[in-house]
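REQUEST FORM: STRUCTURE PREDICTION
Request ID: SP-0412
Submitted by: Lab K.M.
Chain count: 1
Length (residues): 139
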Amino acid sequence: MKKPITLTLGSLILPAMLAGAAIANEDKSGEQGGDAFMTNQPNNAVNAETLIGSNVETQSGDNENIGTISDLVLNEQGQAQAVVVGVGGFLGIGQKDVALSWDSVELTQEGENGSYTVRSDVDRERLENAPEYETNQAN
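STATUS: Completed
RESULT:
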């Protein structure tokens, strides 16, 4: 007498996921063109170097400077999650870092020189009272 074979959903999904991961991790370095290299900056892209050191202004009419971008936080897929803004202090002394979510900042390109104005709807008082951002990696 034959025994019935029972397949669970998990036994079907795991091999499919592993096969998909193997295909996604194929080495494309030998392909001409491929996705391994970029030759030009896309029109809608901003270099991190352009943003780091930029002042962050309020979106209110006075455009008050509320801090300076000191770092960017990316997820594992390389998408921006937050800008780290140095606030308070004087000449870097007494300053703390606060992370503003990427969705709470607005970038506006100014002219042809590639500079950007960075604005947030968070005011200085709220930013100074925000919890300090700490990385979980050794610098």
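NOTES: Residues 1-31 have pLDDT under 50 and may be disordered.
Reviewed by: T.R.
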